[in-house]
């Protein structure tokens, strides 16, 4: 596929079904690299062809730079070259983001996920310069992360169109909640869009997205993959059925008051998979919340 600027790119540069993987910790709160290897292998075996490490769900604000690099190396050793590894490197500091990008490249990542600098709320020209500096810093392809609800700053559609001219800015994780703006960028560029909100997986895929970066895939990876499989097979009705059937779990995990990190770790623990507790300021789900999550999960699993 060739964009208006003449650059040939893959329509799925990082795969199709990506999981925003949690970062497993030990009971004492240390990085659990063995758990990370086991969880990554499980997710891949269940249908994920890409993993996003050190993202929001991976608790990037509370892991050290050294831990981030160790996690990438451990997961790469566990899954080999079978899947894409995208490393979250976004911070509120451009130079720190560049440093993390270089470290991710050295550790074996296939690409980087770069969120808008948060809290400082840079204007669009500064935001554009930030992303370009990161893209120029390494040879890795870049997935921009548009999530204004957390960062306070939208990557405006016109900014995305301009950024698409850079040969290493190839994708967007879309949590903008602006379906019109997203379609405008899809129509004018060949940026590969990935639904970052699980309730939008099918809707965004139907208008040309490359796939998803799913939080819910931590606990139901095969069901997330099945939505996209059905659509690819030409069975839109089945894809719709699967998306709607997953909605109670999507709501419980991402829209019911607790962060996706907390709900994912609660369910993974209940399922006997590596997770451990979240790091402060996040706290583990209480008994009532954990039981409610388990009930919703079991209802989906039984269906």
Automatic annotation (TrEMBL):
Keyword annotations of the record: Amino-acid biosynthesis, Cytoplasm, Diaminopimelate biosynthesis, Lyase, Lysine biosynthesis, Schiff base
Coiled coil regions, renumbered to chain: none
InterPro entries according to UniProt: Aldolase_TIM (IPR013785), DapA (IPR005263), DapA-like (IPR002220), Schiff_base-form_aldolases_AS (IPR020625), Schiff_base-form_aldolases_CS (IPR020624)
SMART domains: DHDPS
Subcellular location: Cytoplasm
Record pathway: Amino-acid biosynthesis; L-lysine biosynthesis via DAP pathway; (S)-tetrahydrodipicolinate from L-aspartate: step 3/4
Binding residues for pyruvate: 57, 213
Main enzyme class: lyase
Subunit structure: Homotetramer; dimer of dimers.
Family stated for the protein in its record: Belongs to the DapA family.
Role played: Catalyzes the condensation of (S)-aspartate-beta-semialdehyde [(S)-ASA] and pyruvate to 4-hydroxy-tetrahydrodipicolinate (HTPA).
Record protein name field: 4-hydroxy-tetrahydrodipicolinate synthase
Organism in which the protein naturally occurs: Streptomyces sp. 900105755
């Amino acid at each position: 596929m060739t964009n208006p600027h003449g650059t040939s790119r893959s329509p799925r540069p990082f795969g199709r079904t990506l999981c925003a993987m949690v970062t497993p910790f030990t009971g004492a709160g240390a990085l659990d690299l063995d758990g990370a290897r086991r969880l990554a292998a499980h997710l891949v075996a269940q249908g994920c062809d890409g993993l996003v490490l050190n993202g929001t769900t991976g608790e990037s604000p509370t892991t050290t730079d050294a831990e981030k690099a160790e996690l990438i190396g451990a997961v790469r050793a566990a899954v080999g070259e079978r899947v894409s590894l995208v490393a979250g490197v976004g911070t509120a500091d451009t130079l720190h983001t560049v440093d993390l990008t270089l470290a991710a490249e050295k550790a074996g990542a296939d690409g980087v996920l770069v969120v808008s600098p948060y809290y400082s709320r840079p204007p669009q020209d500064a935001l554009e310069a930030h992303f370009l500096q990161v893209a120029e810093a390494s040879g890795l392809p870049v997935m921009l992360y548009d999530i204004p609800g957390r960062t306070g700053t939208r990557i405006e559609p016109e900014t995305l169109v301009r950024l698409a001219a850079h040969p290493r800015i190839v994708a967007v994780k879309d949590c903008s909640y602006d379906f019109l703006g997203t379609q405008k960028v899809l129509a004018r560029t060949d940026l590969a869009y990935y639904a970052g909100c699980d309730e939008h997986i099918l809707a965004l895929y139907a208008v040309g997205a490359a796939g998803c970066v799913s939080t819910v895939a931590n606990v139901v990876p095969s069901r997330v993959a099945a939505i996209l499989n059905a659509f690819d097979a030409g069975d839109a009705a089945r894809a719709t059925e699967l998306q709607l059937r997953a909605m109670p779990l999507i709501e419980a995990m991402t829209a019911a008051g607790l962060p996706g990190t907390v709900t994912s770790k609660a369910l993974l623990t209940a399922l006997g998979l590596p997770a451990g507790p979240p790091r402060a300021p996040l706290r583990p789900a209480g008994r009532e919340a954990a039981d409610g999550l388990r009930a919703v999960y079991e209802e989906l699993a039984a269906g």
